[in-house]
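pipeline/complex-builder :: batch 7 item 3
reading input block
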Amino acid sequence: MNYIPSSSRYDNMQYNYAGKSGLKLPAVQLGMWYNFGTDADFENCKKMIFTAFDCGITMFDIANNYCKSTAEIVAGEIFRKHLSSHRDEILITSKAGYKDIEGPYGEWGSKKSVIASLDRSLRKTGLDYFDVFYSHRFDPNTPLEETINALCDAVKQGKALYLAVSNYDGKSAQKAFEIAKSRNVPLIVNQVRYNIFDRRIESNGAQDTEDLSLVCYSPLEQGLLSNKYVNGIPEDSRAGREPTNPWLNKETIFPRVEAVKKMCEIANSRGQSLSQMAIRWLLQRKRVASVLIGASKPEQIKDCAKAVSSSEISESDMQKIDEITSGLYIEKM
Ligand SMILES: NC(=O)c1ccc[n+]([C@@H]2O[C@H](COP(=O)([O-])OP(=O)(O)OC[C@H]3O[C@@H](n4cnc5c(N)ncnc54)[C@H](OP(=O)(O)O)[C@@H]3O)[C@@H](O)[C@H]2O)c1
């Protein structure tokens, strides 16, 4: 497939500054946690990446451990073979911190682990550098200076342009920022789990770190914030394919279905899908620069990208969403 990107790709996307840096992130970006492994339909993976780029999505999120540690292989092949002439228009990220090899150096935040992980990620993707490289989780047993200084060294060596953290509380994220700043390395983002049903970061200080922006992952609560589950769990859905999913299973879906239906009505009255409204809801929250979606089909990406150009959710609709979901969202870490 000879892919030629749409000439109107930048017309409807918004780009927001990340932290205190000069880097702009697309308001919606695409992640490869699911559906991008070597066991996935390769043509569908290509179509999803091409569709995303055609929608102005310039940022693609990977990690060492996604899709049983094979997402980097698939994504790398697609970027190298089909988008190399557009590499300068694209931000590709990866992360270190979760386990991808056996033994004591396969996870967490020691210098040994994060540097070896970054080098493996570069080898697997076949890329020369990552635009943004993340510490995937805070390591309580490694001095933060060790983790962040190791990643700063990698930036100085040209293996990454910017640093970021993920799943850090506000205080640790701010400290990571200060360490990187002392090395003149931009640490720009904290990537956090945040959506209408998961509001835990509102109480851990992540929204108060003025020097960092937020990238919000699982914005649709893995698909629950759509009309997909209103009549049960379809076989061809994430919950249908993976009944043991800890976040998305019959115990977490069924008690929330009535609330989802009511939110679909609000979304419909706004002329949009619930998925679009759930993304819009995040784009209006404090410090959010970009919303990180997942997808199993190209059409879902088109649907989600349209959230960016939709109208603001009014204060009264925001209140209705709070009332409808009261007692159904997680608040405490
Ligand atoms: N930093 C971290 O620790 C961390 C952790 C988790 C994820 N992430 C990142 O965040 C990304 C997104 O996470 P996520 O996949 O949980 O996000 P999500 O956007 O909440 O869920 C994505 C799933 O929702 C369904 N979906 C998407 N768009 C839809 C639409 N328009 N209408 C109906 N259903 C739709 C699809 O599921 P079906 O299969 O049912 O079609 C899709 O696979 C990941 O790929 C990863 O890059 C980071």
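note: The CA atoms of residues 86 and 195 lie 32 Å apart.
queue -> next item
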